[in-house]
Design a protein that fits this description.
With 492 residues, the chain is α/β, with parallel strands linked by helices. The chain has 16 helices and 18 strands. The longest helix has 22 residues, at 75-96. The chain binds flavin-adenine dinucleotide.
Length: 492
């Protein structure tokens, strides 16, 4: 294939992953990354802006919903599990090939726990555990209602808990992870920058996107450090601008950018770095979302590794704020309202009263209210041991599915491609950075179908042996992947 010039907007986890894959598959293509911040991975991918869970459905209960007939549906859990293994294989390959070093700086092993209160939730957890026993990836999971056993898994969860009060149960599975996606993005971009075909421009804010008659994209950006306006020409353009992807997609004026909007939700966590408290919880523990609320309301208590220091995060607590990036502008939300999405957004407002109610309730929560939530996980929590910190932005995608079904909120990551396959934008976030490799592969498959199914297959399979396979159907492959990723990522 002839050499192409690929321009990627944003230097977060998603652009870092896509650029890395392109470099591996087509070493002679020119790659330009444009980033408005002065460093890579400082927005949602930054360690303090997300929970760092390597999402593989080991503990997140929303990936195994209970059907109306009471059975547990495991298909989403299996999908997320396989996607995370794809990411891990790519990262292991980068370590094996010497592109990145010191994996312990971005990924750590941690048991993943699900912890629930109340008979109804215990019944759900027990059914989920039973169902997952037949899926090889989840076979090592343990279930218990025994206070001593849960205390051994997490002393902090059991400290000062009334064991004769509300009933509780938990599952635990080893082999989960905590990931510093910001550091990983930086390592990937640092590795890319060593290549003469790759250039990364920081302090460079993309302001306009226009397609020329030859189908190339003209990208206009302001260099904030120099005050200059720069122009870049892309054969293929990737908008990986996190929360800012929707406004940038609107600038392309392609049909896919119409009747589309974003609902920004900012996150907050309770944060604790007192060593005696942090040491008493060596896991990520996910609960069950309160009945009738959204998956994003799932409370979780996360051990995190931040620049080598161990801390705890609890949350997330959501709030509405008009910025599309943590370091964005209060005008972001209002500026993105256009003639073509006003009806979409109005319909979303009417349809999603529970989301608005939930957001308002969250905004009104005091620190003490947040601590009360935390005390369901950590009964001994004291206010002066925990601080409220602001996390990153989630911009939920809102779009019309048809003229009669307007303003539907889309949960999850969404890849939007132009009809002529010269542009791709990544919208939404959950399950987010964990699935970055699968999402980047989807971008490549959608836009370079011939190469993806042809010349690139051998290299892809070498990097990611489980590509396109449900490893639960091939236990030998599952074990080989565990062995290899554990070895190169230094996990246990
Ligand atoms: C509270 C919270 C908790 C989360 N928890 C998890 C978790 O536990 N596990 C998980 O896997 N995922 C989690 N996520 C999701 C995860 O953080 C994101 O999916 C991921 O970081 C997105 O990466 P990105 O590269 O798309 O975006 P970002 O990291 O936000 O990068 C986008 C980049 O684009 C740049 N940019 C924006 N506009 C412009 C412009 N005009 N010109 C140039 N550059 C621009 C920004 O400066 C930024 O650097 C969480 C997110 C939040 C908010």
């Amino acid at each position: 294939m002839s050499n192409k010039h690929v321009v990627l907007i944003g230097a977060g986890m998603m652009s870092a992953t896509l650029a890395t894959l392109i470099k591996k598959l087509e070493p002679s293509w020119q790659i330009t990354i444009l980033e408005r911040a002065s460093l890579p991975g400082t927005e949602s991918s930054n360690v303090m802006n997300n929970a760092g869970t390597g999402h593989e459905a080991l503990c997140e209960l929303n990936y195994t919903p209970e059907e109306a007939d009471g059975t547990i549906n495991t298909s989403k859990a299996v999908e997320i599990y396989n996607q995370f293994q794809v990411s891990k294989q790519l990262w292991a390959h980068l370590v094996e090939s010497g592109d990145i070093e010191h994996p312990g700086e971005f990924i750590q092993s941690l048991p993943h726990i699900s912890f629930v209160l109340g008979e109804k939730n215990i019944n759900f957890l027990s059914k989920r555990y039973e169902k997952l026993q037949s899926v090889p990836a989840f076979k090592r999971m343990d279930f218990t209602q025994d206070a001593d056993e849960i205390e051994a898994w997490s002393p902090l969860i059991m400290k000062e808990r009334d064991i004769n009060g509300e009933p509780f149960a938990a599952t635990k599975i080893d082999g989960g992870t905590d990931v510093d996606f910001g550091k990983l993005a930086k390592k990937m971009i640092d590795a890319l920058e060593k290549d003469p075909h790759v250039t990364v421009y920081y302090n460079t804010d993309v302001t306009s996107l226009k397609q020329s008659s030859d189908k190339t994209w003209e990208v206009k950006a302001k260099n904030e450090a120099l005050g200059t306006i720069e122009h870049y020409i892309a054969d293929f353009l990737f908008i990986g601008a996190g929360g800012n992807s929707i406004p940038l997609l609107q600038k392309t004026k392609i049909p896919q950018s119409k009747n589309l909007g974003g609902f920004p939700i900012s996150g907050q966590f309770l944060y604790c770095d007192k060593p005696e408290i942090v040491q008493a919880h060596n896991a990520k523990a996910y609960g069950k979302e309160p009945e009738g609320t959204l998956p994003m309301t799932v409370p979780h208590l996360d051990k995190r590794y931040v620049d080598g220091k161990e801390v705890l995060l609890f949350g997330p607590f959501a709030a509405f704020g008009p910025k599309f990036l943590k370091n964005g502008s209060n005008l972001d939300f209002f500026k993105h309202l256009k003639g073509n999405n006003l009806l979409t957004m109005a319909a979303a407002g009417l349809k999603n009263i529970p989301l608005i109610k939930y957001s308002v309730e969250q905004v009104l929560m005091s620190k003490e209210d947040k601590l009360d939530e935390l005390r369901r996980f950590v009964p001994s929590a004291q206010s002066n041991d925990w601080d409220v910190i602001v996390a990153g932005k989630r911009v939920q995608v809102i779009k019309d599915l048809s003229k009669s079904n307007r303003g539907v909120i889309h949960f999850g990551t969404e890849v939007v491609n132009s009809d002529d396959r010269t542009l791709s934008a990544l919208l939404g976030e959950s399950p987010g950075a964990s699935t970055s490799a699968s999402v980047a592969l989807e971008v490549l498959e959608d836009n370079f179908a011939k190469e993806f199914t042809g010349d690139w297959q051998a290299k892809l399979k070498e990097m990611i042996p489980s590509l396109g396979v449900d490893m639960n159907d091939d236990v030998e492959l599952l074990e080989a992947v565990w062995e290899k990723t554990n070895k190169y990522l230094e996990l246990n």
